[in-house]
Amino acid sequence: MDPLLILMLLAMGAFGGFAAGLLGIGGGMILVPFITMVLTARGVPETLVVHMAIATSLATIMFTSLSSVRAHHRHGAVLWRVVQLLAPGIVAGSMIGPWIGKQMDASTLAWFFGAFVAFSATQMLVNKKPAAARDLPGTGGMFAAGGLIGTLAGLVGAGGGFVSVPFMTWCGVRIHHAVATSAALGFPIALAGTVANVFYGWGEPGLPDYSLGFVYMPALLIIVAASVATAPLGARTAHKMPVRRLQKVFAVILYALAAYMFWRAA
């Protein structure tokens, strides 16, 4: 692999890992457009680029979530009972999301991803937290909520934080607990989604060398090496300082990345 591409992957891994720890977003919305650029530069067929970028991004979250959740757990911020209740639905949804993505052509998937990122950027920029309107639902409601979170996360290659954090806040969970718990939910999302992407992409014509289904292993390994180092830094920062100013910066970056995906889809 070209040394410049390796440096790009290291840089995006460091940035994505920090974002994952800081905001509980899994880093996927940042990583997918950049991985798309890298795979395009590697000559991967247009029909596979976005699918592989999403699958590879999702696989990185298995590692960044473990790294960031450890830092959140030290602060006692992870609500493990909530994780237990949401995880079954999340696993089911994270298997369904990649299947839905496979049914889409590359252009449609890029449009959907861009729209989701633009919506998430707006949510971050406005920073309007839903008022606590109720308590967390029972087992059935938590399974349904987890299913929706997992499906969206598996479809766009993200950790689900932009759905799970507002949901938990709406149900009366304090924001720091919601972010920390969202980071913990990233692992079952990523594990189930990665297994699905390996299965659905197995034997797909045109995959580059060193691919495991839709997951491009060289990019995965390089990004993980950087992101695991920076995710705890992001988590510590979330507990030490107001993150509002950084949220605005990330929102602008997300708008730019959404615009890139719209451009690719056009």
Automatic annotation (TrEMBL):
Q: Which Pfam families match?
A: TauE
- Recite the UniProt keywords alphabetically: Cell membrane, Membrane, Transmembrane, Transmembrane helix
> How does the protein's chain sit in the membrane according to the entry?
Multi-pass membrane protein
Asked whether the UniProt record includes Cell membrane among its keywords, one would answer yes
Major place of localization? membrane
Q: Which residues cross the membrane?
A: 6-36, 48-66, 78-101, 108-126, 146-167, 179-202, 214-234, 246-263
Query: Cross-referenced InterPro entries, in alphabetical order?
Result: TM_pro_TauE-like
Location within or outside the cell? Cell membrane; Membrane
Question: What family, per the record?
Answer: Belongs to the 4-toluene sulfonate uptake permease (TSUP) (TC 2.A.102) family.
Name of protein: Probable membrane transporter protein
- Which organism's genome codes for this protein? Massilia jejuensis
